[in-house]
Amino acid sequence: MLKKTQEVSFISFKRDKHDKKLRKSVFLKLNKMAHLFLTSNWFFLYDVIFELFFAITALIVSVYSFKVYKLSNQNQPKLFGIAFLSFSISYFIQSILNYLIISEKAQIISNIGILNSLGLFSHIFFFIIGLTTLAYMVLKIRSKQTYILLLSSSLLSFLIIANKLYWFYAFSSLLLIFISIYYFLNFTKNKKPKSFIIFLAFLFLLFGHIHFIFSVNHLLYYIIGHFLELLAYILILINLTLVLKNGKKKK
Amino acid sequence: MVRKRNKLQIIYDILKVIKGKNGKIKPTHILYKSNLSYSMMEEYLGELISKKFIIEIKEKQSKTYSLTEKGIKYLDEYKFIIEFSDSFGLIEE
């Protein structure tokens, strides 16, 4: 929702600056924005729930990654944990701010556009940190300088690029292609069902982000993108459940 | 064909060898039991000491290695570590 209303909210607020009646109800404004930006009212709440689910799943994965790091002292689980913690923060921010926008609480916020943009930028910022960390992890390069270079160049291009939304979806898709290839190779090497599940999860994340590229102009792609992302996180959760079950069983 | 051991498995094998000898072992025994070259063993022992999985005890003319609490915990939780790392593609060669 943030993505679709980012520019609109600014425009509509400027246009309706003196429209006191409309300002009284944030929901009316959201309705108006929805029609203007092809977003759908019925999806607003699902959007918040979906993002909350993604955030919680990513947080659980990151907690277990850090646990594995603490036990094994290996670099890979640490990087994986950082990546999923960043995803979690990114989704939490988006979910909370989206909730504030659609709820009555948004009435106390004088400029909904600022809130909207803040949510969008924070989401992109943390998501890019997560994906860059994950890409660095799959490249298996042991150099802090390389990591800093990757991270700073990603964040710098995000800060200076004019069309941040298109850039974000295109750039994240590119990184997800790299990550998906890594997990595909991991599966061909392991030939284990769990490796296949995690490969599928990243493939769904990739397809989801590709759909988001088209979603800037079409609502349907935005919704499909969310459902693909939902599938990806369900698969990650299934994988984690299997890991915990097997990890306990074989002790 | 025997599959090449990954880093987590080699660490497990070394720690298991130490535990098998009542938690105290000479490097020659580790070399013999862990199936590693001398240089590889030295490298792994150095890493395990720096990560506080084992401690080196110097005695007169010889030295022995002992497990720490962290090392014991690694052995206890090994199945979970390997399951998680394997399925999420976190294993280093």
Description:
The complex is a heterodimer of chains A (251) and B (93). Chain A has 251 residues and is mainly α. In chain A, 86% of the residues lie in helices and 0% in strands. Chain A folds into two domains: 41-160; 162-251, no CATH class. Chain A has helices spanning 2-15, 20-24, 26-36, 41-72, 75-102, 112-139, 144-160, 164-190, 193-215, 219-249. In chain A, helix 6 (112-139) runs antiparallel to helix 7. Chain A is globular, with a radius of gyration of 19 Å. The model of chain A is unreliable at 1-38 (pLDDT under 50). With 93 residues, chain B is α+β, with helices and mostly antiparallel strands. Chain B has a three-stranded antiparallel β-sheet with strand order 1-3-2. In chain B, helix 1 crosses helix 2 and helix 1 packs across helix 4. The two termini of chain B are 18 Å apart. Chain A binds chain B through residues 64-65, 68, 71-77, 80, 137-138, 140, 182-183, 186, 190, 192, 194-195, 197-198, 239, 242-244, 246-248, 250-251, and chain B through 7-8, 11, 51, 53, 73-74, 76-77, 79-81, 83-92.
Task: List strands and helices in order, with pairings.
The complex is a heterodimer of chains A (251) and B (93).
Chain A lengths: L1 H14 L4 H5 L1 H11 L4 H32 L2 H28 L9 H28 L4 H17 L3 H27 L2 H23 L3 H31 L2
Chain B lengths: L6 H14 L3 E2 L1 H8 L3 H13 L3 E6 L2 E6 L1 H8 L1 H10 L6
Antiparallel strand pairs in B: 1-3, 2-3
Helix pairs in contact in B: 1-2, 1-4
